[in-house]
Amino acid sequence: MSPTAGEVPKRDFAFFHEIIDAFKSAGASAPNGDFKNMNVSKFVEAMTMFLRIFDAFANPFFSDVVKKDVRGNIEKLRVGAQKTRYETIESVIDSELSDPKMKKHILKETSQGAETAAVGLLWLKRTMQFVIGLLRYLVQDASISLSSASRKSYSESLRYCHNLITRGVFDTGLRFAPSRESFYNNLAAGEDLTKVNTSMKEFLDIFDPQLDGIIAMYKTKGLEPYIK
């Protein structure tokens, strides 16, 4: 039944499950579970849907700064796939690396290299390692605050590849992270809060191996000098 005038429509928890389904689809496109060779378009679609999670933080640092960075790197991957006309993540990256001049720029993350799919995915990987880390802390420890989970995960991931200025920005932004309760309430959107941890764990179980595949690919190709 449609809501009456002035009534706020009740949101449901479906959007998290839509994100989970999108990553399931992306994973299913990877031959024999080789996630570096998953379909790049499906991965881009899933990551674009994941952007909605940042809105649940209801905090400018996450919903604007971090989300904007992730969106920009998703776009670099999407454009790179269009330019190279390859269908898998690894084939897109290999195509860009096949040009010796471009490879030098990619390794330095400078000039034209900074706009490539290879560098876009590199920073997308790094940021998702931070985000996944903080979500994992929340799932594993019911008492940990969002600020503490964020700062612990940042110190284990992105901090290693940030300069002093960016570290300062993150240190300040994460110190004023919203409460865990407000984040969970925004994710639940009026539904049972216990569903949040269950769905978050399901998401992590699906996404972790996909991220691990990309991490392994960057290690093998010598494209990640900083974090695990």
Automatic annotation (TrEMBL):
The keyword Transport is annotated on this UniProt entry: yes
InterPro entries named among the record's database cross-references: GLTP_sf (IPR036497), Glycolipid_transfer_prot_dom (IPR014830)
GO cellular component: cytosol; membrane
Alphabetical keyword list: Transport
Pfam families: GLTP
Boundaries of every Glycolipid transfer protein domain copy: 39-188
Source species, domain of life: Eukaryota
SUPFAM superfamilies hit by this protein: Glycolipid transfer protein, GLTP (SSF110004)
Any one Gene Ontology molecular-function term assigned to this protein's record: ceramide 1-phosphate binding
PANTHER family: GLYCOLIPID TRANSFER PROTEIN-RELATED (PTHR10219), PLECKSTRIN HOMOLOGY DOMAIN-CONTAINING FAMILY A MEMBER 8 (PTHR10219:SF25)
Protein name: Glycolipid transfer protein
Lineage: Eukaryota, Rhodophyta, Florideophyceae, Rhodymeniophycidae, Gracilariales
